[in-house]
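Technical note accompanying the year-one report. For the benefit of new consortium partners, we illustrate the data format agreed upon in the data management plan: each record pairs a sequence with a structure-token string. No post-processing was applied to the example shown here.
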Amino acid sequence: MNIKIYIIIERKLMYLNCVDNMELTKYICHRKPERSFFIKGRQFPVCARCTGFYSGLIAYLIVNHFYEHSYDFNMLLISMILMIPVAIDGLTQYFGPRESTNNLRFITGFIGGVGLIIFLKIIMRWIFNVLQILW
């Protein structure tokens, strides 16, 4: 029985090694090469803005683990304000004559990622509170 489990795990790992990381992220990001970071000639699996978003999400969750704060209406406003720079950067690039840089995309994505995770935590807490009242 242990040999069968080992063989199944080995096959899954071989499959994961064969699947390109770019293939796994094609549904969550456009992955345009001119808007992505490269390390040693290899493109990141997501664009610079998404890299910033995910980095901001992770950084906030790590910091929040050590430094708790309340999730009240003021934090909801702060979370929305933190998402404004990424919206301005993305919209002015899309509709205007301005072309954003990867560094600016990353920075605004990072700030937006922090705002997004705060917003999501507030909304999730609100939903759980409503469900507890209803049950």
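Partners are asked to follow this layout when depositing records. The radius of gyration is 20 Å.
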